[in-house]
Amino acid sequence: MRRARLLVGLVGWLTLPACGDSGGGGTPTVDAGARDPYFGEAEWAQIATLSPLPDVPDDPTNRVAKDAAAARLGQSLFFDKRIQAQPLQIGKTTVDPTLSPAPSPNPTALGEAGDLGKVACASCHEPGHWHSDFHSMPRNLSLAIKYAFRNDPALVNAVFYEELGWAGTADRLWTFITSTPEGPVGGTRAGLVHVLSDHYKSAYEAIFGALPAGVASWPAQARPKLSAAEKPTTVTQPWIDAWSTLSADDQNAINTAYANACKAIAAYVAKLASRNAPFDKYVAGQHDAISTAAKRGLGLFIGKANCVACHAGPFFTDQKYHAIGVAQTGDNVPAADTGRFAVLTNYAAGVPLFSGAGAYSDDVNAGMARLVAKGLASPAPTPSDDDKGKFRTKSLRQIAETSPYMHDGVLADLPAVVDFYDQGGGDVANKDPLMKKLGLTAQEKSDLVEFLKTLTGDPIAADLTADTSAP
Ligand code: HEC
Ligand code: HEC
Q1: What digits encode the pLDDT tens for the residues 110-126?
Q2: Which end of the chain has fewer CB within 10 Å, C or N?
Q3: Which one of the ligands is nearest to 409 CA?
Q4: Closest ligand 2 atom, residue 405 Cα
């Protein structure tokens, strides 16, 4: 309440930094005198919690999370197409003849069926496009080797998320990334270590120490089964067989180097923070940084439309999971996606190998404390039907740049998103009680969209968008 009083005046002397404000998180850093009188005291108390973005958080489980050399290595790996070991299944004009039912070719594919050397992280997380997918058409699901089962999220500002993935699959940026070279990039952990040894040896060793002596003797590709549900193919079965013939020491050495590579990639992704959106400038005192329509939209966002109930804080997300009833429809979209339920089911089976609390973490205790605090370990979670179809509240920063929307890209543009919320969301039994019909007028809908457009910050610096993969 003390804070509310501080926000009252348009008086310049109230510039004392955050004085008397020690009680609250998200402490506003702007003096009250800078605030646009368009909004009243109670509204400013809300608005001030939405800006600015804080410093990039530390991650004790990744000792190179803020290491510049690691970020440079990570950037190179982010662009390296040699990690891909699985041939494209869907090409511009051809498809893998063994697929049944045969999908259609897609002219926006990365090459022809059977091609190698076409897929890197950057293929789907495209630099210059907020590190999200702009090539796949339709853009609801990303197409690399095959279609991803979800929409490709922008990696800009992903470093701020408490958990990663639409349903919070992983507890940390680097631990999420461990699923990607072997997932959408179609590589293997042994193959990635060979790429490190063949092309990045000195850069890697300067950061992490010597690569294991055994590298040359390891199979070109090897990895364990990725999940109990994985159905190996004629391409992947030999990799799984090769992994099972490796000694426990070799497996550990490969896992260590693989985790290190993913920590380096995470250090790169951590650099992709974008600040200074018009909205941030507005909150900082530049009253004309956003239009009057956007101000009306902001008023709705924190008022009648109550988006802020979930899209809270400077990341515009409560970092929690809600069922809002997004339909599983659209080209190639799977008929069902249980979202958070599947994630909790995984944790119920035990702490994942690559997690902040796993064997390759740089601070197992900190990692475990975090999992316990989130209800993901000790005791293990007990997923229920109520968790089905829950997804993480998505950040809204640079939202105007990353259509289509939702985990399966089912909503084409921001007006469609606003219509979805105006109708009270979709039709699911466990719908969040915060989802209510809003009764917005056409003007209000367009104002809300104008506000969302003010959340795009500075573009990512050119040196962070360049392909630096080794020749
Ligand atoms: C098919 C294209 C594709 C490729 C290639 C790809 N990704 Fe992704 N990425 C996705 C999709 C789809 C998701 C959402 C997955 C989910 O929510 O389960 C995702 C999610 C992510 C996230 C989580 C972001 C968030 O908002 O929570 C990170 C981090 C990430 N990818 C990094 C990478 C890295 C690093 C690579 C390369 C090693 C990579 N990705 C390769 C499609 C791709
Ligand atoms: C009950 C919590 C809740 C409320 C209230 C809410 N949202 Fe969301 N929002 C979510 C969740 C959860 C998702 C991700 C859902 C998914 O992908 O299935 C999301 C996704 C979005 C997305 C898509 C993000 C992306 O990257 O694709 C936009 C845009 C959005 N919300 C805007 C709004 C606006 C505008 C309002 C107010 C009219 C609002 N939200 C109210 C929880 C909420």
Answers
A1: 999 999 999 999 999 99
A2: C
A3: 2
A4: 27
Cα of 353 vs centre of ligand 2, distance in Å, is 31
| Conformational region of residue 388, where left means phi above 0, alpha means psi within -120 to 50, and beta covers everything else | beta
Measured in degrees and rounded to the nearest 5, phi and psi for residue 224 equal -75, 170
Residue whose token pair is 């089912």 = 410
Both tokens assigned to 295: 């101000």
d(CA 316, CA 23): 21
* Cβ atoms of residues 294 and 300 within 8 Å: no
* Model pLDDT for residues 402-457, shown as the tens digit of each residue: 999 999 999 999 999 999 999 999 999 999 999 999 999 999 999 999 999 999 99
Can you read off the two tokens belonging to residue 367? 């990692």
CA distance 249 to 228: 23
pLDDT at 29: 54
Instruction: Give 190-230 pLDDT, tens digit per residue.
Output: 999 999 999 999 999 999 999 998 899 999 999 999 998 89
> How many C-beta neighbours within 10 Å does residue 43 have?
16
Rounded to the nearest angstrom, the distance between the alpha carbon of 168 and the centre of ligand 1 is 12
Place of tokens 């992490």: 208
**Nearest CA-CA partner of 367 in 378, 42, 407:** 378
Pair 427, 367: CB distance under 8 Å: no
Size of the chain, expressed as the number of residues it contains: 471
Task: Using the structure block, give the residue that is written with the tokens 């070991």.
Answer: 85
| Cα dihedral sign, 131-135-140-144 | negative
Tokens of 16: 């004392």
Mutate to test the pocket of ligand 1, among 132, 180, 332, 390 (most ligand atoms within 8 A of CB): 180
Considering Cα of 89, then 94, then 99, then 102, what sign does the dihedral take? positive
* Rg of the chain over all Cα atoms, to the nearest angstrom: 23
The answer to whether residues 14 and 6 touch, using CB atoms and an 8 Å cutoff, is: yes
Contact partners, residue 350, CB within 8 Å, separation at least 6: 380
240 near 189, Cβ under 8 Å? no
Peptide bond connecting 433 to the previous residue in cis, omega within 30 degrees of 0: no
Q: Long-range CB contacts (< 8 A, 24+ apart) of 228-236?
A: 234/98, 235/86, 235/87, 236/86
